[in-house]
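Record 1 of the preview.
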Amino acid sequence: MSEGRGAEFSWLMSVATSAASSMSFVLTAFAAENPEGTPGKTVLLDSSQFYGGGGNSGVWYNPADQTFWDYPWVGYKYHFFLNCTGDNIESLTYEIEGERSYFETIDIELATTPPEEREAGSHAYNYTKTVTFDYDNQNSITDERSVGLYIGYPLSESGMQALSTFSREGNSDPVNKQLDVALEIGAAQEIAHSRLRLTATFTDGSTQTKTFVIAPIADFTEAYSAYWDASNAWEDEYNLVRNTPGQEPPEHPQKPKLYTITEVVEA
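->
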């Protein structure tokens, strides 16, 4: 290769490399704990960006056949605040891979419209395997819609026992805790079987896809149980002092980091 052609080739490679680097993205929650960008690394998810905590929604509604399943099948909703940063991104499409994993999109206006005033065939609650956000508007909750993750799973024997005790003996802290912990454990185990595939579409029309797995921390049961106890104690104290002159209500316990996220290294 001549000196002139060699210089031209080097310049073209430099341009190509620069263009490729300007078409990239990172999942903010992943990058915050993995600034060096190590592939395949597992990091903690901040609870402000992904958490459950009271996400139980009763018996499972199966979007696949549009039917409600009876107990032990239950549904659970995760708050979904994940977003991305990058260069020259036009839109972001999330795909959830899992037999009983969906995105739940709530049409806010339609949900607050009386059923008799809605257009025939319209639904306030919609379940899909994918959802797309404009890069400049990645909020999962807006005036128009709310987007979360909705999953289904069979409630454990401990959870079913708690439901049975509640029906016989009524409400109590031990029963509430037993049921709530069972619901959280079941949801955490189910979400770990799903994959979150994220595709960025760039302004030049090209795309890039990354895949992530969200899973519970190793000591999930102990951590959530301790948080439940702390929250319950806080509620008791709050109710005692909230109407007492001169006393400040206590601060609610901080949500623990209960989930990890791992970028899957594709073969």
